[in-house]
Amino acid sequence: MAIEVAHMVAAAHAAVKAQVARINDLNVYPVPDGDTGTNMLLTLESVLNETTGRSYDSPEQASRACARAALMGARGNSGVILSQMIRGACEVLEDRDSLDAETFAAGLDGARERAYASVREPVEGTMLTVIKHAALAARETIEGGDADLPSVARAGRLAAHDSVRRTPELLAVLREAGVVDAGGLGVAVVLDGLYACVTGQEIEAPEAVEDDVPDLEAIHAQEEAWGYCTEFLVDGFDGDVEEFREHVYGSGRSVFVVADDDVLKVHVHTQDPGAALSYAGGFGRLAGVKVDDMEAQVRSRGPGGRPVARLGVVAASRGEGNRAIFEQMGAVVIEGGQGENPSAADLARAVDKAGASAVVLLPNNKNIVPTAEQVDELVEARTHVVPTTNIAAGLAVMVGYDAEGEPDEVVEEMCEISDSLRVAEVTRSVRDARIGDREVPEGAYIGFIGGELVAVESGASDTALVLARKIVGAGADVLTLLKGEELADAELEAILDGIRDLDDLIEVEVRDGGQPLYPLQMVAE
Q1: Strands 263-270 and 253-260
Q2: What is the pLDDT of residues 76-118, one digit of tens each?
Q3: Do residues 390 and 364 make contact, with C-beta atoms less than 8 angstroms apart?
Q4: Are the C-beta atoms of residues 244 and 282 closer than 8 Å to each other?
Q5: Would you tell me which of 193, 204, 262, 473 could form a disulfide with 15, CB atoms 3.0–4.6 Å apart?
């Protein structure tokens, strides 16, 4: 049975593409950052690229391909959560032979369950709430009578849009900004697309333009080693296969557990092959045991026989100056930051390039943090995310990096440095907005400390000095300034003079980072 799903994905993609500007405009903070609509669109685009022109042998194969493509293409917080909604729906669909009303409702509920499970502290009034209300409406329609697929899909999309309209009632920051939740609207628009698909309607999409879509095909062309490659057979297996499989999945990576009558074939990459073999031996007789030390094999590939680094670093950054500094400190740099969020696949390729069995990820932007947290599922290396939220903080954290140190100890030190920092940044408002009790006119310079708006001024230097005054007042020994491409030298000198007037004992370091959109970033230690 050939399964084709591209028409469903294309409908959702076209719906979001037609509304992407509207969704982007709903950002609470008027900063030139990676936008919600764009991130959701790129996530769907990854799935569309996977499914276009392809058919699958089974619902399970199709579902798994879609779920993986969504995760690989996920960008930003909204993209990651959308990828988990897709994964949850796919987990339901892989067991169904056709898409009927009951399956559609079950898929929405699976999406809801996965989405909530993916967030440590779920917040209502967001895209989570919207998918919850859509799933509930679909289920109520099913229980109310013999509903067909179009009526269930319609109930879901109408409930989603109603939920979007009510998001400001649940989330104060939306109410104060006078907007609805952007991610929630994105979910509703996806459901618009699915409804149009099941009813035979067409979605009017803008003319296609050439997009710089990442090539996902070679993500694992060169897998880096982690632990021991352990393979064996369990003959005469006596036990619960699912329980066994879950245990093995929890003990390592690159796991395959294939059952054939009373024989199980197992492949797992693990740091403790002895424990895996001992556990499996309790279920039957072991045969064909093979254990290879992959980390030793990788170290032997180093130039001249030298071992590669024990710990690597991948840093997201923008600006030629910043790239040069990160690279001098030993990091693999990936282009990413305000307005240009990398996908999980982009980060995974950079992790592979680092060539170490353990790799630290420095997102250096709040929108990249959730994407970075998904990379561990895509690579062989063990990854550690130090959740830095601007480039200046990432550079400060790099001081604790030791490529040959014990990875867990180095990561702990880098995290401690990150926790001790106070980060601030200056940018310009891209539209009129009201944030809390502040009116923010388009073009004004705005300053944030730790993500909180604290300054709205007419010039970059005035804004920077408001931030510096608060930072110095709270106590700081060292203040590092990261100059962006839009900050004039004269403005930088005015800022330095103002800081010296505040505290002539504070040590001030200046680096020419060249980052766009943010004329100045600061970090206090």
Answers
A1: antiparallel
A2: 678 878 988 999 999 999 989 889 999 999 999 999 999 998 7
A3: yes
A4: no
A5: 193
